[in-house]
Amino acid sequence: MAQKPRLIFLLNTAQRHLQQWMAGRQAQLAEQLGATVPTPAQAGALFMLAISDGATMGELAQALDLEPPAVSGLVQRIEAMGWAERRPCPDDRRTQRVWLRPLGQALLPALREGTARTNQALATGFTDDELATVARWLEHVRRLPAPHEQEP
Questions:
Q1: Residue 86 and residue 99: Cα distance in Å, rounded?
Q2: SS3 content of the chain, % helix, strand, coil (to 5)
Q3: What distance in Å separates the CA atoms of residue 144 and residue 24, rounded to the nearest whole number?
Q4: Rounded to an integer, what distance in angstroms lies between the CA atom of residue 110 and that of residue 40?
Q5: Which distant-in-sequence residues (6+ apart) come within 8 Å of 49 by Cβ?
Q6: Considering only CA atoms, which of 19, 15, 25, 38 is closest in space to residue 111?
Q7: Is residue 45 within 8 Å of 100, Cβ to Cβ?
Q8: Which strand (E) or helix (H) includes residue 96?
Q9: CA proximity to 36, closest of 77, 64, 86
Q10: 86 in helix, strand or coil?
Q11: How many CB atoms lie within 10 A of CB 136?
Q12: Do residues 22 and 114 make contact, with C-beta atoms less than 8 angstroms apart?
């Protein structure tokens, strides 16, 4: 009988390697441009704001699949870089909305191009059907119930 793939091991090591690989690409781009470039998480926030400028912190958390404290730190960092800014919601002063600033908007074309190149590198050697299966499996894993949502 053939041994089944070690999915947890493969997923964990692939995720770590992907982060290292992307950090290396980010460092190369920063060196080429002579400027700071967004991390993948920061780029995700900028992409989200490009679609929904003025999103609330909660909307960002949901779209990026992050906990609110993580989004708060992420927004603080992109705000410090001048890429976005927080403003109180006019309807509810307790709610913060996040807006793209011109510096953040200017990054989007290069980020889109870099994302397309990265996705192309990740897909090289795989058929569309194989990629669809991988994407379906990753979505399945992403949607597994949290421990507090599982049946006793």
A1: 6
A2: 65, 10, 25
A3: 31
A4: 13
A5: 55, 60, 84, 98, 99, 100, 104
A6: 38
A7: no
A8: strand 96-100
A9: 77
A10: strand
A11: 10
A12: no
Q: Which two tokens stand for residue 88?
A: 């109180």
Q: Which residue has the tokens 């299966």?
A: 133
Query: How far out from the chain centre does Cα 143 lie?
Result: 17
pTM (two decimals): 0.83
Question: Cα-flanking dihedrals φ and ψ of residue 37, to 5°?
Answer: -115, 150
Amino acid, res. 138: L
| pLDDT by 10s per residue, the chain, length 152 | 788 889 999 999 999 999 899 888 888 888 877 788 898 899 999 999 999 999 999 999 999 999 999 999 999 999 999 999 999 988 887 889 999 999 999 999 988 988 898 999 999 999 999 999 999 999 999 899 987 776 65
